[in-house]
Amino acid sequence: MNEADIPIDIHAGKLLDWLVSRRIVDKNWHLHIRNIRNKISEAITDMPAHDELLKLLSGAHINYFHCRQIVEILKTTEADSRNVFGRYGSQRMKDWQEIIKMYEKQNLYLAEAAQILVRNISYEIPGIRKQIKHLEQLSEEAEKKIEDLGRSEKTVYGEYQHICKQLSVSGTNLRKELVQKVFSELPGLLESVATAVGPLRKAIELYAAFVNDAECLPLLKHVIGKGNTTVYEYVYGEPPLSVEEPTVTFDLADSAEEQGGALDAIDFGDNGGNIDFGTDENIDFGDALGADQDAGEIDWGAPGEEQLVHEVDPNISLAESGIVVEEDGHAGGVAKGPEAYTVLDSPTYRDRFTNDLLELEAFLRMRLYQLECADKTQLLTFTMMDSFPDHDVKSLTGMLTDVEVAYGALTAELLQHLQQIKHSPEYVDILTANIHQKLSSIEKMKDTVKRLQEKSINFKAQSVDLKPTQLKIIDQTRTLQQQIERDISGRYKNRTVNLYGTNL
User: Fold this and answer.
1) How many Cα neighbours within 13 Å face the side chain of 374?
2) Cys-Cys with 111: which of 29, 233, 235, 377 at CB 3.0–4.6 Å?
């Protein structure tokens, strides 16, 4: 086999070591490169205006092969300075020719070219690729966050719409709308609950027969029989002449200063709030005691005095006797304070009413479970149920459905919100703050999305700007690789030289 046909394979990363080991370059070559670099820096400051020179010098690390190209260009631009002996009188040409001679001494140019090649394939190109990949990754992460925030924004906005729909408000003036609903819609909602418990009579009769107690579920029976009456009527058994429900004051203003002066409006009397109890001298204990009578002497009557005994004639009427029998003080009275609330509006009696419903529901579910179970002997059977009125699975299911309807009306979210607002005015602050917080979260997410969009665009623009630089360095590295391969090939009888491991 001919020696010229045997290729020379050199790993690009070990090219400099290969050159040193073959004594093509000196191991201390880097000590002489600094002078060449300084010379190049000085020569660049005085260059003619030429398009190819500008293109050659822009963004490239000037090496020996660039210097040769510069000399070839200067042969054209500096042709006028050439003398009859073929030498150039131009200082520019002299400087660059000197640089080439310094490079060729001890093959310094080949060592520097090998170093540039290794640096490009090991650091420059991978670094730019990594930076581009990182910028693209940041852009993708920003877009992913934008999508996540978009879904979160839709979720929060859906929650906001759901709350507004539950409360039947538009959200324009939330506090005012909620307060108005307390007075306009709450009574009607409570009446709908009272209407919903009407079909529960048979279920209550069945439960009363089971517990053998005609007085069971008293509040539920009261609402079925008389409706949503006042607590006063439920407690005393008769309606009041008038109802004075506790006044509920809502602050619709944003400033707390408008709430002031409430305590100042309380009038304790004409004397400006100073109650005069008088002095001991002004207290009148009656005229029966004389000034000279001892306060400690009590007259029990003389033992010998005749005591008058009045006998009561049973045949005399109360009117003739002058005795007045007063009633208990509740009939025809005024319902005030907590007794003025309706039983479904009063927090205490509403809880009792709820307990009655749940108690009835639990009984119906247990009885229905017993009837639907195939193996009744394995359960605790209600032996006394045989004496109750006829009922079956279908009828119990209907009763249970009626109970669930009534319970659903009682626990409706709008009703609960309105009752909370009425009995705790601070609740409207909590509710409106919760809703406004959702709107605030939506605005914050929109701002975040806007910033992320700007970042994503910026990251993409940076990655796009780096790609031409990457392609340019790759192209320059490939050119340098070919130049080194040709130079080494010339040293070894034009054998083929392969620099592998460049990963370009």
Assistant:
1) 0
2) 29
DSSP 280-303: GGG----SSS-TTS-TT------T
Closest CA to 338 of 349, 328, 352, 354: 349
Q: What whole-number distance in Å separates Cα of residue 200 and Cα of residue 396?
A: 11
DSSP annotation of 82 reads B
- Residue whose token pair is 């309380």: 266
The C-alpha atoms of residue 373 and residue 79 are separated, in whole angstroms, by 115
244 beta partners = 336
Do residues 406 and 357 touch, judged by C-beta distance below 8 A?
Answer: yes
Residue 90 tokens, joined: 């131009």
Q: How many whole angstroms separate alpha carbon 397 and alpha carbon 225?
A: 23
Which burial class, exposed, middle or buried, applies to 83 when counting CB atoms under 10 A from its CB (0-12, 13-18, 19+)?
exposed
Q: What is the DSSP letter of 344?
A: T
Between the alpha carbon of residue 346 and those of residues 76, 241, 322, the distances in Å are 106, 19, 43
- Residue 68: how many other CB atoms lie within 10 Å: 15
Q: Which two tokens stand for residue 12?
A: 């690009």
Q: What is the pLDDT along the chain (504 residues), one digit of tens a residue?
A: 577 778 999 999 899 999 999 999 999 998 889 999 999 888 888 877 777 777 777 656 788 998 888 888 888 877 666 665 567 767 888 888 999 999 999 999 999 999 999 999 999 999 999 999 999 999 999 999 999 999 999 999 888 888 888 777 776 777 788 888 888 888 888 899 999 989 999 989 888 888 888 888 999 999 998 888 888 888 988 888 888 877 766 666 543 333 333 333 333 333 443 334 333 444 343 443 333 444 344 444 444 444 433 444 445 443 444 434 444 444 457 888 888 888 898 889 999 999 999 999 999 999 888 887 744 544 444 444 555 556 788 888 999 999 999 999 999 888 888 888 888 878 888 888 888 888 889 999 999 999 999 999 999 999 999 999 999 899 999 999 999 999 999 999 889 999 998 887
CB 209 within 8 A of CB 216: no
Phi and psi angles of residue 167, each rounded to the nearest 5 degrees, phi first: -85, -5
